[in-house]
Amino acid sequence: MEKLMLKASDGYVLHGLLGIPETDVRGTVVISSATCIKKEYYLNFANYLVKGGYTVLLFDYRGIGESAPPDLKQSAIFLHEWGTLDMNTMLNYLVEERGCRDIVWIGHSIGAQLVGFLDQHQHIKQIIAINAALGYWRYFPYPMKAVIWLLWFVIGPLMIRYYGYGQMKKIGWGENLPPNALLEWRSWCLSKNYYGGFIARHLKTDRFYKIKTPITAIYFSDDYIANDKTVSLMMNFFPNAPTRILKIDTTRYTRLKVGHSGVFRKRFESSLWPVLLSHI
C-alpha cells in the first residue's frame, strides 16, 4: 500500500492508502469507512481486492485515525464534512490525477450514506452500500434500542461535558470523535428523517436527486442497526438511483457474529468476502 496525503478543498490534509495490482487491473474501488472506524480496519479486505486485480483506495476522514488533529477538543470538524469535503477529495484525486473512471464505491454505513454529496458522481459506475441504514434510534430492536438511548441521552452529552469530545474508545465504539461531529451525529439519530433536515438546509432539497448511479444495498441478518426497516428508509434518500436491497442470512455462511462491521474481518475471507466480490 502506498501512503497518500491529499489536501481537501479547504486545505485540510487527509491521509490515505492506495493499493495497485501488479498486473491485469480489473477496476478501481474506493472503500469509504463507517463512523469511528479508521482505514486500517479495512486493510485485509483491501489486499484481498488488490490480489483480485483491483486498485483500492482507503482513507481516514478528518478527525479519524491519521487524519485526526492533535487536539480533538479544539477541533471544529463536523460529520457532514466527511461527505462534502473528504469523499470529494478522494474521488477527485482518482478522476483528475489518476484518470480513473467506472469506479466502484464501497461505502460502509456512513461511507454510503454521504455519497449524495459527491460532485463527480458520474465517474462512479456502482455504489455498494454495506449496512447503510437510517440511524433513527427508535427503529432499532430491543435491547439495543435502550443502549442507543443511553448513548444519545446520557453518555454522549456527558462525554462532551467532561472530556470536550466523543470518547468513543472508552465505550468500545472505535475512534474518538470531534465534539461537533458527535453532536451532529446525535442530532441526526434523534430525528425520524435522520439527516433529511440537514440536506434540506444545505442543498435546498430533502433528497439526493442527482445520484443516478446503481446502488446495491447489502446488509446482514444479525446487524441491529441495518435492519429490514432502516435499510429501505435509507435508500429512499436516493430516489433516482436504481437500487437493489440484498439481505444476507449470516447463518448460511458462518456461525460467527457478523453484525454491523464484522464482514471486513479476515475470518470471513473464505465465507463472506466472495459474496461481496461477486457484486463488484
TrEMBL record:
<feature type="transmembrane region" description="Helical">
    <location>
        <begin position="146"/>
        <end position="164"/>
    </location>
</feature>
<keyword id="KW-0378">Hydrolase</keyword>
<feature type="domain" description="Serine aminopeptidase S33">
    <location>
        <begin position="24"/>
        <end position="151"/>
    </location>
</feature>
<dbReference type="GO" id="GO:0016787">
    <property type="term" value="F:hydrolase activity"/>
</dbReference>
<dbReference type="InterPro" id="IPR022742">
    <property type="entry name" value="Hydrolase_4"/>
</dbReference>
<dbReference type="Pfam" id="PF12146">
    <property type="entry name" value="Hydrolase_4"/>
</dbReference>
<protein>
    <submittedName>
        <fullName>Alpha/beta fold hydrolase</fullName>
    </submittedName>
</protein>
<keyword id="KW-0472">Membrane</keyword>
<dbReference type="InterPro" id="IPR017208">
    <property type="entry name" value="UCP037442_abhydr"/>
</dbReference>
<keyword id="KW-0812">Transmembrane</keyword>
<dbReference type="InterPro" id="IPR029058">
    <property type="entry name" value="AB_hydrolase_fold"/>
</dbReference>
<keyword id="KW-1133">Transmembrane helix</keyword>
